[in-house]
């Protein structure tokens, strides 16, 4: 019985490519139907493995030595604010005209929002208790990412993915590497910052989806996304079943926002342009709904913590 046009249309096969399969000769010569673009459901939430540490510093208005004799009270105020807003404080160092701290944050927490919350609440509490003229704090701030490893060590680790996973011995290794020759400069008003993050995405069910060509196409597209959305990608390492990235973000962007932009745009690009790669892998989503995110910087968390804990 010959299938109806309606039944074939429901299967996603374009009508202009249908042939009469009752004739074996026609069946042998029929062109193979192409794979239409796939719609992949965007991620709205993710499971996280993360270690996000940031060194923050902000100064008093006009560098006034406000906290010469009241540093202990400032530390108490900031500790209470951090506990109330789920910021995990690793170390504090109050100075007469500035405040330094080391915080561990969650992926959805943006640096600029965290600093705004600490400044606004501490300024209000301190002004009320000690009758100080507002504003207590200056507008700007310093924010730097730190981590268990320095940025240089993370870069070296990404460059060694081919050897690490045993792909370097193949004639055509299924791996693609990108490293920015000239890092993109990121700017934010009234802020000095350097926020580096190491990200790892795994393919759905850890299926081997990526080839070197597909990895290059995805990386090129991600660089366009980063330019359009105001963050920077410094390094990418693509192997068949997972991807490593080294990205920098601006203070107003959380790393969760950055990751969702990369994952959702990435799988939309693959589903639209390379659906056959997903069909051959037998998956209907490009990524696992889980991510690793870790900060890194010029200095390690342990070194910054020891420095802040040193008596003045």
Explained architecture:
The chain folds into two domains: about 50-145 and about 300-310, Transposase IS200-like (Alpha-Beta Plaits), CATH 3.30.70; about 145-165 and about 170-295, Alpha-Beta Plaits. It has about 300 residues and is of the alpha+beta class. It has helices at about 5-10, 25-30, 70-85, 110-130, 150-160, 160-165, 210-230, 255-275, 275-280, 300-310; strands at about 45-60, 90-95, 100-105, 140-145, 175-180, 190-195, 195-205, 230-240, 240-250, 285-295. Strands 1, 2, 3, 4, 5, 6, 7, 8, 9 and 10 form a ten-stranded mixed beta sheet that branches. A hairpin with a 2-residue loop joins strand 8 and strand 9 (about 240-250). The chain is about 35% helix and about 25% strand.
For the structure shown, list the relevant keywords.
single chain, 312 residues, alpha+beta, Alpha-Beta Plaits, 2 domains, ten-stranded mixed sheet, 10 strands, 24% strand, disordered N terminus
* Backbone structural class: alpha+beta
Fill in the CATH topology of the largest domain: Alpha-Beta Plaits
What fraction of the residues are assigned to beta strands by DSSP? 15-25%
Contiguous runs where pLDDT drops below 50 for at least 5 residues: 1-32
Helix content range = 25-40%
Classified by CATH, the class of the largest domain is Alpha Beta
Overall strand count: 10
Q: What's the overall geometry?
A: elongated
Radius of gyration: 26 Å
N/C terminus separation: 89 Å
Gross CATH architecture of the largest domain: 2-Layer Sandwich
Average pLDDT: 88
Order of helices and strands: HHEHEEHEHHEEEHEEHHEH
CATH superfamily caption of the largest domain: Transposase IS200-like
Biggest sheet overview: 10 strands, mixed
**Treating each run of at least 4 consecutive H or I residues as one helix, how many helices?**
10
Number of domains: 2
